[in-house]
Design brief:
The structure is a single chain. By secondary structure, the chain is α/β, with parallel strands linked by helices. Helix content is 17%, strand content 31%. It contains 3 helices and 12 strands; from the N terminus they run H-E-E-E-E-E-E-H-E-E-E-E-E-H-E. The radius of gyration is 15 Å and the shape is globular. It starts with 12 loop residues before the first helix and ends with a strand.
């Protein structure tokens, strides 16, 4: 089986190792993901810190910016420094997620994806917190603003992810927790 590429531009060895473990874990849970999305929240929000990887071929199909929760950046430094699974925290939660059903946002017509946190105590409140993978106008090339805890991407990137197929995707969010 393929997996995470040995050398992925911009991805640390630690993040790569954790992403590989997350992929193995998802397979042990009976999933055989066709897309692994890795978001390294240790990097600044100005960096391309999200990778979409085809684990069957070890090909990076996309690299881009991603937002973190404003509660995770109390100093407004552009770096996520604290993480939480608590409703109302407006923080990003780390760990492994299953990308779940699509729905259409009534405000802007965009297609979004619900996320199911698979790690008890770390991200299992994702549904309750309404943490979803969605597009946002505050994410663009070279910069990502703050979400309310969601891994938000630009509109064109969300379109690319939806076109690629998210029905059998998993998401790993890396952070110092």
């Amino acid at each position: 089986q393929a997996g995470v590429p040995q050398h992925t531009e911009g991805m640390s060895r630690t993040t790569r190792a954790h992403a590989e473990q997350a992929l193995d874990c998802s397979r042990k849970l009976g999933r055989d993901p066709t897309l692994l999305i890795v978001a390294d929240m240790r990097l600044p929000s100005s960096a391309q810190r999200l990778w979409a990887i085809d684990p069957r071929t070890s090909e990076v199909v996309l690299r881009t910016e991603v937002a973190h929760g404003r509660g995770s950046d109390p100093d407004r430094s552009g770096r996520a420094s604290v993480f939480s699974n608590t409703p109302g925290s407006l923080m990003t939660s780390v760990g492994l997620y299953a990308v779940s059903e699509a729905y259409r946002n009534t405000k802007d017509g965009s297609t979004r994806r619900r996320l199911d946190g698979l790690m008890v105590g770390f991200n299992d409140a994702a549904r309750e917190r309404a943490v979803v993978l969605h597009p946002a106008s505050y994410v663009r090339a070279g910069w990502a603003g703050h979400s309310e805890g969601c891994p938000a991407v630009s509109y064109p990137v969300m379109d690319q992810l939806n076109e690629r197929g998210l029905d059998n995707a998993v998401l790993w969010i890396e952070g110092d927790q």
